C-alpha cells in the first residue's frame, strides 16, 4: 500500500498520522533530516507524504547585526514566504512543482514548541505560542491556513512534528523527488522522510491533502493573508484616528499631539510608556529593571512574531546604558520621588565586585558578578553605560531634584564614579587607553573591546556634567581635571573618527563591529547635547550643527530608512532624535510617524515600545521582536516627545527657551504640568501649546502662508521662543518682540524675545 523512501543509515520505521515512514536517527537518538536534494522514488502514487516540514534554521529573524543596513533580509521569515520547492519528476520528464510556504505547509518548531534537550536546538525560553493559545479567533485563522497534519505525540520532535500530504497524479510513475531550498531565504525546511500511497490505495478521510491546483490558483492566499493580518501590523490597517487613552493613576505631564493619525498614536505611545517606565522599571525602594518584570517577549532575538506572556527577559538585570537613559527621561518628566531612590540604589551598585577592574565603576550589567576572566560578557568596561548613569546623576542636580547639600553628602560616590575615567587614563596597560577610551561594549565589541566614537563622546559629556557638580561643591581643581579630560577625549575622538568625505568634507564616522544594526550612533553629539546643553544646536553651537548635518548627509549615502526599528532605541530612536535636532522636517516627520507605527498593534499589547521590529522588505508590514518595553529602547522613543515639545530648561542659568517642532501635517502639540526648572533651581509646573494657524495665545507668527500660535502659563519666565518653520523670511509677529530670523536647512525660523510668563 505504501512506498517509502529508504534511509541508508540505520533505517527504522516510524508511523505518524497512520502513515509509515523510514527514518534515521543520529547518535543522540534524534531523527535526522534528509541531507540530499535528489531522492530516487520509482513509484506511481495516489499521494505523497512528507515528514518534518519544520523550518530548518533556528532563526526566523536575524539576531542583532548589520543585515538590514546591508539590505539583506534573507534570514527574516514571514507568513507566505516560499522556503522550498519540491519537484516531483515523473518518468515522462514532466513534473509537479510544490511550493513549501511558511504558514501553509511549513511551520517553526524550535520557538513555537519547547524542544527536547537531546535535540540541542536554540529555543531561548520557548515556547512562544501567543496569540494562538489565548485567542480562539487567532487559533482558528492559523488552523484554516495550515495544511499540515500534526504529530501530537509527546515523542514528536522537529523532524517528526508534521506531515504534509500532496495529491499526486496516479497515472504517472514518479522517477525522483527533488527538495530544493529557496536561495533568497535561509530558513529552508527539514524533511526527514517521504512516503507514497501507492496507486489504487485508499485515501483516508482524516488526511489533509492538497493538489497542484491548490498552488497554481494560490488557493492558500486568502487564509494566509488573514493569518498574517492577525499576527502582524500592516501599514494599511493603521487607525484613521486614535483617541487619547485614559490610564489609571496617570501622573505624568499630560502631553498631546494632534493633526494626523500617527500624531494621535504617538500621544498614546508616550502615555503608556512613561507610566511603564515610572512604575515598571523602578521599584518603590529604587531597585531598577532593564525589563518590566513579567512582561511579554516576542521570540527573543530570532522570533517570527509570536510571543509568550509573563516572560522575565531582563527583569532582574540593571544594564547601565538602559537604566541611565530611562531614569534621565523620568527625571525630565518630573518623577523626582521615584528617581532619587534609584540613584541611591545605583550608588550602591557602583561598588559591586568586579573581576577585571576592582575599582568602583558601573559595569555593563551593574548587579551581576562574573565568576572569572572567562565570564566577562556581562561585566565589561562599558564606558558608555557608565557615562549613561553619570548623566542621569548629573540630571538630578541640573533639573533641581537634588541640591548642593545632596551633592556634598554623596561626594564620595560622585568622585569615585568620575575617577574611573581618570584611572583609565593613568593605567593604560590595564585599561588599554591610548588617547581615547577603550570599551567592552555593544558600541565597540562586547567581550574583547574596541575603540569607538560613541563611548568616547558620551563619556566626554558625562565628565563635563560631573565637572559642574564639583564646581558647585567648591572643588574647582578637581572640576578642572574632569573638564580637561572631557576636552582631551573630544579632541582625540576628532583625530580618530573624523573622515574627509568626497562630497561633504569632514564628517564623523564610527565602528559597527558588534551588534547594533545602524551607524546612527555616529550622531552621538546630537543625542547627548539635548541632555546637557539644550535643544537648539544650530543657534548655540552652529559649528557642531554643521558638522553633524554633514555627517547625516554622509550617513544617508550609506544607509537611511525611516523604518529603522531593528533596535527601537539605537535605531529608530537615535535616528528620529537626530533629525529632530537637525530640523530636517521631511525626515523628522517620516521617522516619528514610523516610530509611532512600530509601537502600535491592533490587538496585542498596544503602544508599549518593543525592543525591536522586523520589517518586511516591502515596508507594508512588520512584527515585534524580543523584549516588550526594554528600558533603553523605550526611553529613546519617549525622549522624542520631549524634543518635539521643546520646553528647554536644560541649562537653567540661561533661562527658559521654547523650541517646539511640529512635524509636517501635525497641527498642534501641548503639554500640561510639565516640570520646568528655573534659574534658581526651583521647579514649577508649566503649560505650553503650539498650534498651526491664528488663535488665542501669547504670540502669533506668520509669513503670509504659514502661521503659528504659541501660548503658555506658569511661574517661569520665557527668555525666547523659536517659531516656525516658515517658507519665507518676512515674518510678522503679534504679541512679542522679533529678535532674529534664521534659515535652518531650507526653512525659516523666527526667534521672539521677551521675559514673558
Please describe the topology of this protein.
Layout: E1 2-4, E2 12-16, E3 19-23, E4 38-55, E5 82-90, E6 95-101, H1 136-145, E7 149-150, E8 162-167, E9 173-181, E10 189-198, E11 209-210, H2 212-216, H3 221-231, E12 233-234, E13 254-258, H4 261-280, E14 295-298, E15 308-311, H5 320-332, H6 336-349, H7 383-398, H8 404-409, H9 411-426, H10 428-431, H11 453-472, H12 476-497, E16 498-501, E17 505-508, H13 524-532, H14 537-540, H15 542-558, H16 568-581, H17 585-599, E18 610-615, E19 621-628, H18 631-645, E20 647-648, E21 656-658, E22 668-677, E23 683-692, E24 699-702, E25 707-714, E26 718-726, E27 732-734, E28 737-744, E29 747-756
Parallel strand pairs: 8-11, 21-26
Antiparallel strand pairs: 1-10, 2-3, 4-8, 4-9, 4-10, 5-6, 5-9, 7-8, 12-19, 13-22, 14-15, 14-19, 16-17, 18-19, 20-21, 22-23, 23-25, 24-25, 24-27, 26-29, 28-29
Task: Describe the protein in words.
With 757 residues, this protein is α+β, with helices and mostly antiparallel strands. Among the domains are: 2-231, no CATH class; 318-495, no CATH class; 676-756, no CATH class. It is 31% helix and 24% strand. The protein contains 18 helices and 29 strands. The strands form 6 sheets. Strands 1, 4, 5, 6, 7, 8, 9, 10 and 11 form a 9-stranded mixed beta sheet that branches. Helix 4 crosses helix 18 (631-645) and helix 9 (411-426) crosses helix 11 (453-472).
Residue-averaged pLDDT: 97
Gap from first CA to last CA: 90 Å
CA radius of gyration is 30 Å
Q: Tell me roughly what share of residues is in helical segments.
A: 25-40%
Strand content: 15-25%
Principal-axis shape equals elongated
Low-confidence stretches: none
- Helix tally? 18
What does the main sheet amount to? Answer: 9 strands, mixed
Number of strands: 29
Task: Please state the structural category.
Answer: alpha+beta
InterPro entries: 6-hairpin_glycosidase_sf (IPR008928), 6hp_glycosidase-like_sf (IPR012341)
Amino acid at each position: 500500500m505504501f512506498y517509502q523512501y529508504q534511509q541508508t543509515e540505520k533505517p527504522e520505521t516510524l508511523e505518524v498520522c497512520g502513515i509509515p515512514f523510514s527514518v534515521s536517527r543520529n547518535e543522540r537518538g534524534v531523527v535526522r533530516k534528509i541531507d540530499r536534494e535528489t531522492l530516487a522514488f520509482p513509484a506511481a502514487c495516489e499521494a505523497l507524504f512528507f515528514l518534518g516540514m519544520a523550518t530548518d534554521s533556528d532563526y526566523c529573524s536575524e539576531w542583532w547585526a548589520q543585515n538590514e543596513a546591508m539590505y539583506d533580509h534573507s534570514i527574516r521569515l514571514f507568513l507566505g514566504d516560499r522556503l522550498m520547492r519540491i519537484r516531483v519528476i515523473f518518468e515522462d520528464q514532466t513534473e509537479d512543482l510544490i511550493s513549501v510556504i511558511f504558514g501553509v505547509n511549513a511551520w517553526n518548531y524550535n520557538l513555537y514548541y519547547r524542544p527536547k534537550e537531546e535535540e540541542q536546538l536554540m529555543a531561548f525560553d520557548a515556547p512562544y505560542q501567543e496569540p494562538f493559545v489565548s485567542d480562539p479567533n487567532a487559533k482558528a485563522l492559523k488552523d484554516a491556513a495550515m495544511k499540515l497534519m500534526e504529530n501530537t505525540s509527546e515523542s514528536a520532535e522537529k523532524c517528526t512534528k508534521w506531515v504534509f500530504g500532496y495529491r499526486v497524479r496516479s497515472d504517472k510513475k514518479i522517477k525522483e523527488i527533488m527538495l530544493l531550498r529557496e536561495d533568497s531565504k535561509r530558513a529552508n525546511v527539514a524533511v526527514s522522510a517521504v512516503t507514497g500511497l501507492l496507486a489504487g490505495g485508499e485515501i483516508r478521510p482524516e488526511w489533509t491533502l492538497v493538489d497542484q491546483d491548490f498552488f497554481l490558483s494560490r488557493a492558500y492566499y486568502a487564509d494566509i493573508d488573514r493569518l498574517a493580518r492577525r499576527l502582524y501590523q500592516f501599514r494599511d490597517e493603521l487607525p484613521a484616528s486614535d483617541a487619547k487613552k485614559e490610564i489609571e493613576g496617570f501622573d505624568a505631564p499630560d502631553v498631546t499631539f494632534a493633526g494626523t493619525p500617527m500624531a494621535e498614536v504617538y500621544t498614546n505611545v508616550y502615555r503608556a510608556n512613561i507610566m511603564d517606565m515610572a512604575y515598571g522599571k523602578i521599584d518603590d525602594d529604587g531597585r531598577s529593571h532593564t525589563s518590566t518584570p513579567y512582561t511579554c517577549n516576542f521570540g527573543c532575538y530570532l522570533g517570527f512574531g509570536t510571543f509568550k506572556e509573563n516572560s522575565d527577559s531582563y527583569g532582574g538585570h540593571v544594564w547601565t546604558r538602559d537604566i541611565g537613559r530611562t531614569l534621565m527621561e523620568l527625571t525630565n518628566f518630573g518623577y523626582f520621588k521615584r528617581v532619587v531612590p534609584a540613584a541611591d540604589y545605583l550608588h550602591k551598585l557602583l561598588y559591586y565586585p568586579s573581576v577585571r577592574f576592582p575599582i568602583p565603576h558601573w559595569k555593563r550589567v551593574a548587579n551581576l558578578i562574573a565568576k572569572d576572566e572567562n565570564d566577562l560578557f556581562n561585566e565589561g568596561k562599558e564606558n558608555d553605560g557608565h557615562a549613561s548613569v553619570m548623566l542621569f546623576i548629573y540630571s538630578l542636580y541640573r533639573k533641581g531634584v537634588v541640591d548642593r547639600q545632596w551633592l556634598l553628602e554623596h561626594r564620595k560616590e560622585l568622585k569615585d564614579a568620575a575617577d574611573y575615567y581618570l584611572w583609565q587614563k593613568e593605567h593604560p596597560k590595564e585599561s588599554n587607553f591610548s588617547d581615547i577610551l577603550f570599551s567592552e561594549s555593544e558600541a565597540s565589541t562586547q567581550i574583547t573591546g574596541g575603540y569607538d566614537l560613541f563611548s568616547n563622546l558620551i563619556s566626554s559629556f558625562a565628565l563635563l556634567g560631573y565637572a559642574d557638580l564639583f564646581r558647585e561643591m567648591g572643588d574647582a581643581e578637581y572640576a578642572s581635571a574632569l573638564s580637561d579630560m572631557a576636552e582631551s577625549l573630544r579632541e582625540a575622538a576628532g583625530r580618530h573618527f573624523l573622515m574627509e568625505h568626497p562630497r561633504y568634507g569632514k564628517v564623523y564616522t564610527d565602528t559597527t563591529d558588534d551588534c547594533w544594526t545602524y551607524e546612527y550612533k555616529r550622531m552621538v553629539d546630537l543625542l547627548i547635547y539635548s541632555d546637557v546643553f539644550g535643544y537648539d544646536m544650530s543657534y548655540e553651537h552652529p559649528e557642531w550643527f554643521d558638522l553633524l548635518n554633514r555627517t547625516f548627509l554622509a550617513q544617508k549615502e550609506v544607509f537611511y530608512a525611516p523604518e529603522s526599528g531593528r533596535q527601537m532605541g539605537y535605531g529608530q530612536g537615535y535616528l528620529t532624535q537626530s533629525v529632530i535636532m537637525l530640523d530636517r522636517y521631511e525626515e523628522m516627520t517620516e521617522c516619528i510617524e514610523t516610530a509611532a507605527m512600530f509601537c502600535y498593534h491592533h490587538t496585542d499589547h498596544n503602544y508599549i515600545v518593543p525592543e525591536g521590529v522586523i520589517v518586511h522588505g516591502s515596508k507594508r508590514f512588520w512584527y515585534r521582536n524580543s523584549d516588550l518595553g526594554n528600558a533603553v529602547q523605550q526611553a529613546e522613543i519617549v525622549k522624542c516627545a520631549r524634543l518635539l515639545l521643546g520646553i528647554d530648561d536644560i541649562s537653567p542659568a540661561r533661562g527658559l527657551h521654547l523650541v517646539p517642532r511640529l512635524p509636517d501635517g501635525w497641527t498642534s502639540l501641548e503639554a500640561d504640568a510639565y516640570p520646568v526648572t528655573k534659574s534658581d533651581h526651583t521647579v514649577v509646573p508649566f503649560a505650553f501649546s503650539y498650534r498651526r494657524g491664528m488663535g488665542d495665545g501669547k504670540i502669533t507668527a506668520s509669513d503670509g502662508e504659514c502661521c503659528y500660535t504659541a501660548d503658555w502659563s506658569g511661574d517661569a519666565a520665557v527668555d525666547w521662543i523659536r517659531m516656525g518653520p516658515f517658507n519665507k523670511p518676512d515674518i510678522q509677529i503679534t504679541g512679542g518682540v522679533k529678535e532674529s530670523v534664521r534659515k535652518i536647512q531650507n526653512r525659516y525660523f523666527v526667534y521672539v524675545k521677551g521675559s514673558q510668563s
